[in-house]
Structure formats: structure tokens, C-alpha cells
Write a structure and sequence with these properties.
This protein has 349 residues and is an alpha+beta fold. 45% of the residues lie in helices and 13% in strands.
Amino acid sequence: MEMIRMSNTKNLREGDVLGRDAYRDHSLVLKKGTKLTNQHIKRLKSFGIETVQIFFTMTPKNDAHLKKEVENEEEQAKEEFFHCLTKLNVEKRYGRAFNSNRAFRFTESLFVKLLQNQSTRSLLKQLKDHDYFTYLHSVDVFILGSLIGNHLDIDHLEEFTLGCLLHDVGNLNVPTDILLKPTSLTDEERIIIQRHPLDGSLLLSDYSSLVRNLTKAHHEKLDGSGYPNKLTGDYIPPDVQMLTILDIYSALTSTRSYRKSFSVPMALEMLARDTHAINESYLIELCTLLEIYPLYSTVQLSSGEKAKVVDLDDKIPSFPVMLDTTEIRIHLLPMNRKIWIDRIVKLSD
């Protein structure tokens, strides 16, 4: 059975066949199906192309062997998923969305299913080896996408979450000294960083148009301030608008090479101030999913009363301090949750 795998150009041999087009700065270098010669390999190396995808043939195995191999891969995927969770500060960053065993099993099974695809598995392995922070961020966005996609009951959940998982795969073409730089980027370095959505969509040429578009457009903003194409409004598909919010939330609440993480309440407050550039209704859905509400947002309680969030404890952000609309009576949610926040009325003043 013929399949595709990633290969470092240092390990290429004459006679290997390219499994996908090879690009340099969005210019085609070699087409898919090219049988590599030593001259081709030297050309790839001279252009600074570190990895390509090549065809390989799996050796036929008996059913028992294949079954054992699949079971081992599933166990490895489960172990990797759990390992990522231990690094993601789940208790604070996912609010109440991940408080049940059902939520864990649901996201775990979806992760395992997506990793059954050899190309996806290979790309993630490459990303993990290239930049662990980008890899962990990608898994984080996948989990958030799985939870909110399930919450909204979207009918293409598997495809959407695959796009979430692979949205930053273009960072494979960004040097690690830029990705991990602890100080401000130069204009030249920023240009290189901003190529990663296009690079990612090219790397995913064999994936669906939805997955490629999620990768290509996840940095676009409704007001046209994003990149790479400065799209505006409805020119940005709804799935992309959702991914953009998850991507920003994950980045804000994670430690980066150049700054410490923001608390969840602060991250949501920052997003709430940016609704000219992101989809406000999707941000409200994220807050509802997490059961964490931005400072100064107006909410309606299960009792029917309206109140404004005036204080949040980072340690227990699901239990905000609120003032009723007369700004006289303080509301505190009881730990037994006999009264709860029913919905957001308004994100900010």
C-alpha cells in the first residue's frame, strides 16, 4: 500500500518520489510525482528546503499484526493527548467546559481518530520536533475547537477540528530562532512569520478546502487588519472567524517566549475590547462554554435579574462578583449553583 511521509532532505535518496509539490516562498520547485535525482536533491538543499513529503510503500502484514499495530498507535495517541493536557493548565484555562469525564473522552477519541491519518501524524511529529510550543498550542486549539464545535453542534466537526489541529503547520517553514525569539521581531522577521498561513495551506494541498482555508485565513480580522490577504467581514468564512478567536485565546493564556501568560479573565476582557476585529457572537459562545465572563460584561441570572461583572478571582473565575443594574446590590454566585448565569446580555460597557 502506497502512502506519504515527511522526510528530511538530508535523508533523501535518488529514486525517491515526491508525494506533494515542493515550494520555496510560494514558488513551485518540484512537482508531486517527481522521481528524484541527485541533482533534484541538491537543488532542494540549495533552496534551504529542509523537509519534503515522499511516497513509500507499506509492506503487507497479516491481519493480527496490523491490528496490533493499530492498537499500539491508538495507545500512543492517547498517551500523547494526556501528556499535552498535563502541560495546558486545563483546570483554569478551559473553565467548566472540561469538567466532565464525557468531555475528556470525547476530545480524546477525536484526537485519536484524527491521528489515524499517517500524513496528519507525520506533520504533527515534524511540528513537535521543530517547535514544541507551536505543537502544544495546536493541540490546545484543537481541544478548544472540539469543545465549542460540540457545544454548537456543527455538522462538520471532524473536519473543523482537523483544521484547528493543523492551523499552524506553516510554522515548519519558520526558523526556530524567530519562533522562539524573546524580544521584538524585526520587520523582516515579521514578514517571515506572516507567511506561515500560506505556507501551511500549501503543505496541506492534499487536504480538504475547508482545512486549507482554516489554515490560510486564521489570522484574518473582520476590520481588514489581519493577514495574509486583509480580508474583511463576510469575506472571512464563519469557521475561520471561530478559529481566529480560539487561536487568540490560546495564545493569550499561554506562556510565550517573549511574555508570561495572561489570566483567563484578562484574556477574555482583551478579546471583548477587540470585537471590531473578531466575531462578537462567537466570543459570547466561548464565554458561555467556559462559564467565565469578561469583566464589565452584563449578564442575566437564572433568577431573571441582570447584573454587571465587577470583579473576578483568577483562581475561581466561574464565580464572579456582580452588581445588579441599580449598582446597589452585590450578587455572588452560590457554590451549590442554585443561581447561575444564564446568558451574556452585553460584553462590555
